[in-house]
Amino acid sequence: MKTWSEVMEIQPLASKIITNSIKKDRISHAYLVQGERGTGKEAIALLLAKVLFCENLRDADPCHICSNCKRIDSGNHPDVHWIEPDGQSIKIEQIRNLQKEFIYSGVESTQKVYIIKGADTLTANAANRILKFLEEPSKKTTAMMLTDNSQSILPTIRSRCQVIDLRPLNPRLFQQQLTESGMSEANAILMSALTNNLNDAFTWIEDEWFAESRKIMVQLIDMFSTKPDDVYLFIHQHWIPHFKDRKQQEQGFDLLLLAFKDILYAQIGREDSMVVFTTDDESLQRTTRYFSQEKLHHILNAILQAKRNLKQNVHPTLVMEQLTLQI
């Protein structure tokens, strides 16, 4: 997204709030931009950073061709700092290093910007450090904190930011975009349930790792009804070695959630809402007979809790073991 008009098409409220602030010269010292993956958090942060440094600002839009705009695009502007998780979290050392940068005036101007991706992954110590920044803002400092898990943001941090809520993208429009770009209808339905990002959707659908993920997920669900005594061994031999990092583990839980929703949909006659299974799938038929609706509701809640535990840095092996026992 290159202009606020383009942002307006996807996130009208966010675009209106920010452009009004720009035109009135009342840009906040701190923003918390929250929304699902693919809703435009990074694009909005990048656009606002350019607005603050652009040499040829046109109304509220940056020119994208001046030296500052180009260096922000390439990640090389000395006064624009991006912080993202180191492994599964943003650590206190990263915030200390950021604070050292802010002891000095801007290299080329008095303006400084820092953008924190995955702000929900800040450790407790790192969050308290960043809180100091927010409590004592420099006149020319703008913070942008991006998150898809707003519930994990400390209330004290939230209260010091202008909150920008991004609305979920319309999945049917996204499905249409995927099919028009060459993806099969079945895959487009699945991808639209997993992501709002076009590039991610095509990367995943062509990735052998993702294909194996779907296979392992279906095998695991089938084992609950056919070989329940072997499930614990299966997750240690197949699931845990395959879903290694946090992003993969989250995707594994997303696949499980969609699959168990399909089983529930099949029971209540909403086959048109299914995204993983087809109506003639033997595995679906077995599990539909095996699980009661009450049990499926319990399982769906357990998977959602497992996702929350994972975001709270509970050890992923323990999370998966607990979920398996609950199912």
TrEMBL record:
- Name the Pfam families for this protein: DNA_pol3_delta2, DNApol3-delta_C
Instruction: Provide the GO MF annotations for this entry.
Output: DNA-directed DNA polymerase activity
Q: Does the keyword Transferase apply?
A: yes
Q: What reaction does this enzyme carry out catalytically?
A: DNA(n) + a 2'-deoxyribonucleoside 5'-triphosphate = DNA(n+1) + diphosphate
Q: Where is the DNA polymerase III delta subunit C-terminal domain?
A: 241-326
The source's domain of life comes to Bacteria
**Entry keyword set:** DNA replication, DNA-directed DNA polymerase, Nucleotidyltransferase, Transferase
Protein name, entry field: DNA polymerase III subunit delta'
Q: Which organism is it from?
A: Virgibacillus alimentarius
